[in-house]
Amino acid sequence: MDRLRLILAVAAAKLIFLFCRITGSRGSATPGKYARALCPNVIALLAAKVKRGMIVVCGTNGKTTTNNLINATLVQAGYKTVCNNAGANMLNGIAAAFCKGAGLFGTLRADYACIEADEANLPLLFAQAKPDIIVVTNLFRDQLDRYGEIDLTAQLLKKAFDMAPEAKLILNADDPVTSVFGRGRGAAYYGVASDPHMLAVEEIRDGSNCQLCGAPLRYEYYLYGQIGRYHCPKCGYENPQADYRADGIRIENGILHFDVRHAGLTVHAESEVTGLYHVYNMLMAYAALDLLGVDHKSILSVLCAQKPEPGRMSRFGIGGKTVYLLLSKNPTGFNQSVTTLINDRREKDVLLVLNDKPQDGEDISWIWDVDFETMRKADAHHYSVTGTRRFDMYLRLKYAGYDTDTISVYDTTEEALAAMLESGRDLYYVLVNYTAMYPAYVALSRLEKEGR
C-alpha cells in the first residue's frame, strides 16, 4: 500500500510541477502539499532511498544561501542530490523537493539530500527522516507571531536535536544562543578568529544572557546581533574553540576576502557578497563539505564563484545604473543590510518594501528594533517606501529623524521602482522582506533584460 501511495504522490507532484511551469508559477511547495495528502509519509519513504546521507540546514538567517552552497559543491563534485534550493523549507516544500528528484515509480537515485528546514518544522521532519549532519546558522528573533521570543525557538531546536542524537552538529561558536547545543555532542564549531573592525549599527542583543546560568554575558566585541566574543562571569561559559576559523576579513574593491584556518591548513576565500553574515555562510558550508570528505580546492572553487541567491545581495545593471536587492526580513537581517548601506560611501537612493503577509509574519513591530537612526549615515538622497505596511515604514523613518520631504510613499513595488530609477543617481538599494523579494527580483530582472 505504501508503494502505491508513493507512486501516486510522486506522479501528482510531477503533474503539478508541470502545470506550474506552464503557468509561470514558482510551485515550490504546492506539489508537496498534494503529495503529502496522498502519501503522508512520502518524505520518510523517499529519504530512506538516499545513499550517503542527509544534510539539514536550520536557523534564522542564512539557511538558503548556505544550503545551496553545500548542494552546488556536491553537484560540482559529481554527486547526485535532492535539494529544496528555492527556499521552501516547511514540510510541503521539503516533500516537493524529494518528489521532484524521484522517478515516476517512486525510485530515487541520490547520493545526498541537502535540506533547508524551518525551525518549527524540524521536529516534524526528524520524525520522518533522521539527518546525518545538522548545520545551525544562528538564532535571532523572527516572525514573533509564529515563533514567539528567541527562547521558545531555542526549545524547538533542542527538541529536534534530541530526536537525532547520532547527527553531527555544526554550530556557530560566536552565537551564545546556539553554541550550547553542542555540549556533550562532539559538535564541530565555526567562528571568526578576531574582530574585523567593520562599521556597524547599534542593535538590540536578544541572546546576550548566558544560556546555561542566565547571567548577563560580557563581550570583548560584537559582530552583529548577539554574535561576537563573549564569556559568562558567573559560570565561565565562553566561545567554544572554533574548528573552522575566518581571519583577515576585509573588503577590497567591493570584494570580500578572508582566510579559512582548519587543522593547520590555511586557504584563501573571497566573494562578491560583502558582509560578515556571508563569512559565516561560507564557513559553515566549508565545514559541512569538509566533514563529508570533499577536497578543499573543489569546495573553494564553488564557494568563491557562487553568485548571490535571488534577493540576497543580488546585483542588477539597468540602463547604466546599479541596483542591489537585499532580503531584510527581521531585525538582525535588516541591520546587516543597514551596515552594508553605511559601508558603501557612494551616493545612492533607497527603496524599502514592507509586507505583513502570513509568510512574513503579521507582527511587524520588529521594525522598531532596526537601527534606522544609523541608516541616516548612508548618505542616501531619497527614500521610497511601499508594501502592505508602507505607512508603518514611513512612520518609522519619521520617528528616526528623517526629513519627510526626502520620503516618498508608493502603492506598488513596480511604481516605486519606476520612480526611483528615474532619478539622477547611479546606485540604488532595494531592501525587502520575504514576500516582497520574489516580485521585486522578477521586476528588476525584467528591467535589466530590457536594458531600461
TrEMBL record:
Entry keyword annotation includes RNA-binding: no
Recorded GO MF terms: acid-amino acid ligase activity; ATP binding; carbon-nitrogen ligase activity on lipid II; zinc ion binding
Keywords: ATP-binding, Cell shape, Cell wall biogenesis/degradation, Ligase, Metal-binding, Nucleotide-binding, Peptidoglycan synthesis, Zinc
Top-level division of the source organism's lineage: Bacteria
InterPro entries, per the entry: Lipid_II_synth_MurT (IPR043703), Mur-like_cat_sf (IPR036565), Mur_ligase_cen (IPR013221), MurT_C (IPR013564)
Coiled-coil region list: none
Entry binding sites for Zn(2+): C210, C213, C232, C235
Listed Pfam families: Mur_ligase_M, MurT_C
Catalytic activity: beta-D-GlcNAc-(1->4)-Mur2Ac(oyl-L-Ala-gamma-D-O-P-Glu-L-Lys-D-Ala-D-Ala)-di-trans,octa-cis-undecaprenyl diphosphate + NH4(+) = beta-D-GlcNAc-(1->4)-Mur2Ac(oyl-L-Ala-D-isoglutaminyl-L-Lys-D-Ala-D-Ala)-di-trans,octa-cis-undecaprenyl diphosphate + phosphate + H(+); beta-D-GlcNAc-(1->4)-Mur2Ac(oyl-L-Ala-gamma-D-Glu-L-Lys-D-Ala-D-Ala)-di-trans,octa-cis-undecaprenyl diphosphate + L-glutamine + ATP + H2O = beta-D-GlcNAc-(1->4)-Mur2Ac(oyl-L-Ala-D-isoglutaminyl-L-Lys-D-Ala-D-Ala)-di-trans,octa-cis-undecaprenyl diphosphate + L-glutamate + ADP + phosphate + H(+); beta-D-GlcNAc-(1->4)-Mur2Ac(oyl-L-Ala-gamma-D-Glu-L-Lys-D-Ala-D-Ala)-di-trans,octa-cis-undecaprenyl diphosphate + ATP = beta-D-GlcNAc-(1->4)-Mur2Ac(oyl-L-Ala-gamma-D-O-P-Glu-L-Lys-D-Ala-D-Ala)-di-trans,octa-cis-undecaprenyl diphosphate + ADP
Listed Gene3D superfamilies: Mur-like, catalytic domain
Lipid II isoglutaminyl synthase (glutamine-hydrolyzing) subunit MurT C-terminal domain boundaries: 327-437
Protein's name according to its UniProt entry: Lipid II isoglutaminyl synthase (glutamine-hydrolyzing) subunit MurT
Organism: Candidatus Aphodoplasma excrementigallinarum
Encoding gene (name): murT
